[in-house]
UniProtKB/TrEMBL annotation:
Organism: Alcanivorax borkumensis (strain ATCC 700651 / DSM 11573 / NCIMB 13689 / SK2)
SUPFAM superfamilies for this protein: alpha/beta-Hydrolases (SSF53474)
InterPro entries referenced in this protein's UniProt entry, alphabetically: AB_hydrolase_fold, Hydrolase_4, MAG_DAG_Lipase
Record's keyword terms, sorted: Hydrolase
Superkingdom of source: Bacteria
Protein name: Hydrolase, alpha/beta fold family, putative
């Protein structure tokens, strides 16, 4: 079915835009809430929506604060807020879960996310896991707390130097810039996203993609990651919550998949119900890479298993 837009006013009066693709009511099996990554937006998941709808799943993709159509004076492009931005993201996810459950009261809800969206989804599942039937982490990563403490040093310095709402060339060089250099014979700065040149061009040509996030957004993310990826944080996941890990082994953001495999190891040690799929040639956006059809099928198959 065609995309619908929902505009939801949050408890702090921020309006988040939610891209909603409903499936036919008589065929509905459940609801997926999908959280997009940094410097992109929910409308990019039209292809995923088509696949999920055909399999009987509704799809909700909210635009994070400072992204897509969820931009305001307090959350300009790339900025999730001057303070408490991470908790606002958690509250936003809770609002979308509540909305989905109100609209489809008898259906299971699965939460998923790509890249930064996977981190937000993980944090939300630690707080709201009892309301979920499953968790999908796509193109994610894992590091011990010491890594995030170290990463926080230049981010904190750049926040002092540039201001909370402004981006930092240093942070860009340490992140997007570094990942771009790890693709041999790259023709654009975003080849690290996908091995499909048409998808890379589509990203570059999209005015709502590729922007730099603010220093405060990065600070909020780094601080939250140290907490949600700790053993104490991960232990907050309901012990019966099924988790699906999806990643590319040529993804520079996760050190060519090593970060995803480290996350797999930690969750496995904690005896979390877990299924993993890694694609040898996949880069960061496996849902926009040559392996797309296989990734989509893995999601559909897992959804059927975890909700049967």
């Amino acid at each position: 079915m065609s995309e619908q837009m929902i505009y939801h006013t949050t408890d702090d009066n921020h309006v988040i835009a939610i891209h909603y693709w409903p499936c036919k009511a008589q065929a509905s099996k459940g609801t997926v809430i999908w959280l997009h990554g940094m410097s992109e937006h929910g409308a990019r998941y039209q292809n995923l929506a088509s696949i999920l709808n055909a399999a009987g799943w509704h799809l909700y993709c909210p635009d994070h604060r400072g992204h897509g159509a969820s931009i305001s004076d307090t959350c300009p492009a790339g900025h999730i807020g001057d303070q408490h931005g991470w908790q606002h993201l958690m509250n936003d996810v809770a609002s979308v879960i509540h909305l989905a459950k109100e609209k489809h009261p008898q259906l299971p809800v699965v939460l998923g996310g790509h890249s930064m969206g996977s981190f937000v989804a993980l944090g939300a599942a630690e707080q709201l896991g009892d309301t979920l039937a499953g968790l999908v982490l796509c193109a994610s990563d894992y590091h011990p707390g010491a890594y995030y403490r170290l990463m926080g040093l230049p981010v904190r310095f750049e926040r002092m130097r540039q201001g909370k709402r402004n981006p930092s060339p240093v942070i860009r060089k340490l992140t997007f810039g570094t990942w771009a250099t790890r693709i041999p014979e790259a023709t654009t700065e975003f080849d690290w996203l996908s091995g499909n040149p048409e998808e890379v061009k589509r990203y570059i040509d999209d005015p709502l993609c590729g922007f730099d996030c603010s220093t405060e957004t990065w600070m909020q993310l780094v601080t939250a990651m140290r907490r949600i990826q700790s053993i104490a944080g991960l232990s907050e996941l309901p012990e019966t919550l099924p988790v699906l890990l999806l990643g590319g082994e040529q993804d520079p953001m996760s050190d060519n998949g090593k970060g995803m495999m480290a996350l797999e190891k930690v969750l496995h040690a904690m005896k979390q119900p877990l299924q993993t799929h890694f694609w040898p040639e996949g880069r960061h956006e496996i849902l926009n890479d040559h392996c797309r059809a296989e990734v989509e099928q893995a999601i559909i198959d897992w959804l059927a298993e975890c909700t049967e």
